[in-house]
Write a structure and sequence with these properties.
By secondary structure, the protein is an all-beta fold. It is built from no helices and eight strands.
Length: 97
């Protein structure tokens, strides 16, 4: 199964790290939101279990951790708005603007 993450609004030249079940699956510097499409990056994570512990960290900023039920959720959008990170789950992919 694949879990699809989209880093959406609020990223400004950030260093972002994503872990799935404690294993680093993404680490990138200079992540910035493209305001024309409201997306900074897209990440596909191969998941072998029905649940995944997802952690998203912006260096020097916010950190969020969430348990994702793969039977209910295949897509997670990550938003950093007004200094707060939010992980929004969806069974269907949320279209870009």
């Amino acid at each position: 199964m694949k879990l699809i993450l989209k880093l959406r609004d609020g990223f400004k030249n950030d260093t972002v790290q994503i872990k799935a079940n404690g294993r680093e699956v993404y680490h990138k510097e200079g992540v910035s939101t493209d305001l024309a499409i409201s997306v900074a990056d897209r990440v596909e994570i191969e998941v072998r279990k029905s649940t995944v512990s997802l952690e998203v960290v912006v260096k020097g900023g916010e950190r969020q951790k969430k348990e994702i039920n793969m039977k209910m959720t295949r897509f997670v959008d990550v938003w950093c708005i007004d200094g707060k990170m939010e992980l929004r789950e969806s069974h269907l992919e949320v279209p870009m603007l």
